[in-house]
Amino acid sequence: MASATYHIADFFLELRHQGDSVFQRLNEELLPYCCDSVDVADCVLELTPSHGEYEVPLGARLTGYWGSQAHRKFFFNKRIYDQQLDKALIEKDFQNNTVTIHYDTDSSWIATHSRAAVKWLVIKTAEHRGYSYLHASSLVLNGRGIVFAGHSGRGKSSFLLRLLQKGGKAISNDTTLVRENQLTPFSLPTKVRKDFVERFGMQEGRMRLGSSPPSNGIAKGIDLLVFPEIRNSQKSCFAELEKELALERLLAIYEKEASWNAVPLEADVLRERYEPIVNESSCYEFYAGTEEREVCRALDALLEVQE
Fold first, then answer.
1. Rounded to 5 degrees, what are φ and ψ at 96?
2. What is the pLDDT of residues 56-96, one digit of tens each?
3. Is the pLDDT at 207 greater than 90, yes or no?
4. What is the residue-wise DSSP string for the chain?
5. Which domains does the chain possess?
């Protein structure tokens, strides 16, 4: 089995593969992070053509399913198993920072889940090293670290794009890693939504918002922590958020994201890591309306308040 090495965020990922189309597709997306091999990688993803061996361990507990049970999720011995009936099985051993993907043939399901495996391998490896994961987009604008945190579909990437147009420097999109309140560059390609094409003039395909390998030297604390929400109104507004409410929102966002994709951190550990982030930041909730000009006006007003 061949292998390739990538330097993503502060970590080295070893990708073991057979050189097939599954590897080639994933390698194309990870190519900006490709680097020389290292003696010991921080985490390992193994792509293994298995020809029909997709059974979960005896005694594994079913924790969820979708698509008429065609995709099922199991938990056993601190490991997560994603099973696509008769087609694929993903074994996630985040305690040892390894994921193995067994598959018969290449498919969109394999492509989606192999990308997700890379993302969560990096996240869980980072958590084991004391980093905090935020489901958020982040950037530096005029010397300030700004983070937009929220559930999927709340406008994190949209706000990032708006501030990039104002001269901001992206650090991460969708996934933000923080250590000692310092933002760590981390970005994987994400799909350009149709509304991004219409509103921001982007080309269809995938966008790489955020920094490529971390040699660019960006290291910035979080000065402004914003929780965006979408509202069915033309008007947009913002309001300061109490620290405890901001903390509870971060905890709820993490629980929703991590409980499905990985083994979450213990609640007391997570709270201990999030408290300094919240306490050292100015926290706001931002309600984005349907009128883009109004959203930008309110966003400018928020930035002025924080100057």
1. -105, 10
2. 999 999 998 876 667 899 999 989 999 987 789 999 999 99
3. no
4. -EEEEEEETTEEEEEEE-SSHHHHHHHHHHGGGEE---SS-SEEEEEEE-SS--PPPTTPEEEEEETTTTEEEEEETTEEEEEETTTEEEEEEGGGTEEEEEESS--HHHHHHHHHHHHHHHHHHHHHTT-EEESEEEEEETTEEEEEE-STTSSHHHHHHHHHTTT-EEEESS-EEEETTEEE-B---EE--HHHHHHH-PPSSEE--S-SSGGG---EE--EEEEEEE-SSS--EEEE--HHHHHHHHHHHHHHHHHHHS-PPPHHHHHHHHHHHHHTSEEEEEEE-S-HHHHHHHHHHHHHHT-
5. 2-128 (no CATH), 132-305 (3.90.228.20)
Token pair belonging to 187: 């970005």
Residue 59: name the closest of 86, 81, 88 by CA: 81
- Six-digit token pair at 117? 């495996």
Q: What is the pTM of this model?
A: 0.90
Report the amino acid identity of residue 91: E
Name the residue among 170, 304, 299 with its Cα closest to residue 238: 299
Dist CA 289 CA 188 (whole Å)? 28
- As given in the structure block, the two tokens for residue 197 are 């094409």
CA 275 – CA 244 distance, rounded (Å): 9
Q: Which two tokens stand for residue 88?
A: 């694929």
pLDDT tens digit string along 176-206? Answer: 999 988 998 887 766 655 566 555 655 555 5
Q: How many residues does the chain have?
A: 307
What's the rounded Cα separation, in Å, for the pair 81 and 150? Answer: 26
- For residue 59 the two structure tokens come to 């005694």
Pairing of strands 282-288, 224-230: parallel
